[in-house]
Specification:
Layout lengths: L7 H15 L10 H6 L5 H9 L4 E10 L2 E10 L4 E11 L3 H30 L5 H15 L5 H12 L1
Helix pairs in contact: 1-4, 5-6
Length: about 160
């Protein structure tokens, strides 16, 4: 979020839009913008969401607007370690703000899906199966991931294959 009170509404609107888009993915639990804004800019936010709300990842960002330009700095943070998993800076015209929001959401989802895949692979290795049907579903899930996991349809397909 922006620290400039005159730009606060713009930053809050972007945050709400990104939150809305992320919440469309059923495997990603998203805290409401209202809850997140209550702890913004505090060092306790990471600890609160990690320990009290049991969240694994946080998305933080800053937005600066000048005339017809916007700069968005966004990062995905591992809540348990406070390490940055991914960060990016976007310098765009204000006319591209919606496409930029979509790009941010797609990148976050694909990054998280990679993390989810790693966790599921570890779980799968620890639970070796002799069930060929289960193995088939694992392979189908991995294939869906490799072939464009960022689309909502492939995300659902891969998730369902892991569940099956």
């Amino acid at each position: 979020m922006s620290n400039d009170p005159e730009q606060q509404f713009f930053a809050e609107g972007m945050s709400e839009d990104i939150t809305t888009e992320l919440s469309r993915f059923s495997d990603i639990q998203v805290v409401s913008s209202h809850s997140a804004c209550q702890l913004k800019d505090t060092s306790a936010a990471t600890e609160y969401f990690s320990e009290k709300r049991h969240m694994n990842y946080l998305v933080e960002g800053k937005v600066r607007r000048s005339n017809d330009r916007v700069r968005i700095n966004v990062q995905l943070i591992d809540a348990s370690t406070s390490h940055t998993i991914w960060a990016e800076k976007y310098d765009r015209s204000l006319q591209q703000v919606f496409q930029t929001q979509d790009e941010i959401v797609e990148t976050i989802v694909s990054t998280l899906s990679g993390q989810i895949q790693k966790v599921e692979m570890v779980r799968a290795k620890n639970r070796a199966t002799t069930n060929l049907r289960a193995y088939d579903h694992l392979l189908r899930s991995l294939s869906a991931h490799k072939n464009g996991y960022t689309s909502k349809n492939n995300f659902k397909i891969a998730r369902q294959e892991f569940i099956d």
